Amino acid sequence: MPGEKTVKRKAEHLDMCVREDVETGSNGFSDVTLVHRSLPELELKKIDTSTSLLGKKLSLPLVISGMTGGVEQARKVNRDLAAAAQERGIAFGVGSQRAMIERPELKETYYVRDVAPDILLFGNMGITQIAKYEPARVRKMLEDTGANALCVHLNPAQEVFQTEGDWDFTGTLPALRKLCRELRYPVIGKEVGHGISRETAKQLKQAGVAAIDVGGSGGTNWAYIEAKRAGTDLGEFKHHGIPTAAAVLECRKVGLPIIATGGIRSGLEIAKAIALGATCAGMALPFLRAQASGGKQMAIRLVDRMQEELGRAMFLAGCRNIRELSKADHVIKGDLYAWASQRKLV
Ligand SMILES: Cc1cc2nc3c(=O)[nH]c(=O)nc-3n(C[C@H](O)[C@H](O)[C@H](O)COP(=O)(O)O)c2cc1C
Q: Is 252 in the pocket of ligand 1 (CB under 6 A)?
């Protein structure tokens, strides 16, 4: 198994995320309003929420974001969530595969293809790890997982507040460029809760990524989790980061598919994310908690709730499909408007 410390940390993370308050701030979507249509000329049941991401069809624009693997508890979490994704036709990602690349026998804590043969499946690796492994080794890891693409997570805020964290991010951009060139799988640049800026999005595009998961603030906060574990106070850093809605605006003109993750908790927020320019939304914590409370069935229920709310939001905005939703009239106000205008994003 991975080192004692890693196992303990992963188990602590899962436990804290299920039981404790690990979210901070606002994701910015309360500052977005979809303009209401009183004559939608639509039938609710005929609204089409399907879309595609990286060439795969999804029944709604939703990804269950990568969370876990490498420890025993992870096996069931991954299998339940992947099976729910299979039943409902959405995408799913496993958590960091650092443990598996070192110990290939840990594959079974990540392996879900037997219960989810058709889903869009993402592998996962940290940006500070990719410099340490040849692309061929990462490719083998993805082949063994049956993944369709690799999420490379960018988590400097988590690392910097972790006592045992990786505090050296030099050389990561050239390593990412090399990986994108040689991997032969699409790479997704993925933040985990502090948001991707326009500047970072351009760097990612130049490096050759195929999509961006903006991982904005307003949901699970990894700096907060690590500070709690270390018994320290984050102070004002508790609200550091780019709220998810702002991060979508930051990245939308870069010309890559955008996944809006970070505090997304309703189908209405998914609809707003699409209207702002996202291709899909991503959710992690609510799926972990659903799985903890009732396995695959509760995860399926959560997907169904998201689909129902998304359909209603589309109906009220007069949009019959996701293409129309991506052009839906909306108003941006408050802090999000201040952000967008100072950054010249609107
Ligand atoms: C328990 C847990 C473990 C996570 N582990 C990873 C990981 O290994 N790799 C990664 O890219 N993101 C990881 N994340 C981040 C999520 O994919 C997501 O970006 C973040 O939690 C924000 O979404 P949320 O607010 O819906 O939880 C993890 C999240 C949770 C809750």
A: no
